[in-house]
Structure formats: structure tokens, C-alpha cells
Design a protein that fits this description.
By secondary structure, the protein is mainly α. Helix content is 55%, strand content 0%.
């Protein structure tokens, strides 16, 4: 498993964006929407939504909020236990 707590938190940020993207793609597919259909409904550029779903670039919070509103969803964050020791001895 990758180290999540390196100096600047880059790996943690990448993992967050990756996992968020997976959740967003799953939600869109659950509603049988293509990327293009979703973007048309929300009047958003496909590149912007695609980047968010693929975990690329910085998280666009305004776009995320529009998507969550459309899906009638709310996002929560939780802390979970690591399945391996943080510091190997």
C-alpha cells in the first residue's frame, strides 16, 4: 500500500481524488447517464467533469457541488483504520 502521509500529503490528495472520481462515475452510471448527457443537463464542459471523474487536476468544488445537487447526494468524510502499521519497526 502506498504511503499516505508523506510530507506534503501529495499521495493522500491523489488518493482522495481517485476515490471521489470512482464514486462519481458509479453514481452517473447508476443513473444510466453518459458523460455527455450529464454535462448537457448541468451545462458543464465535458472536460471539466471528465477530469473530476478521473481524479485529474485539482478538485473543482463548484462542479462537485453541482453534481451532488443533481444527484441529490451529500458527501461525508470519515477516518478509517489502516490495515497495516503506519511505522514499520
Amino acid at each position: 500500500m502506498e504511503e499516505l502521509y508523506i510530507g506534503s500529503g501529495v499521495a493522500l490528495c491523489h488518493r482522495f481524488r481517485r476515490e471521489l472520481g470512482i464514486l462519481l462515475v458509479n453514481e452517473r452510471k447508476k443513473r444510466n447517464l453518459t458523460l455527455e448527457e450529464l454535462c448537457e443537463k448541468l451545462t458543464l464542459k465535458t472536460e471539466v467533469v471528465s477530469d473530476l471523474e478521473q481524479g485529474q487536476r485539482r478538485t473543482n468544488w463548484a462542479v462537485l457541488c453541482r453534481m451532488l445537487d443533481y444527484y441529490d447526494k451529500w458527501m461525508t468524510v470519515q477516518l478509517v483504520d489502516l490495515d497495516y502499521p503506519k511505522h514499520w519497526q
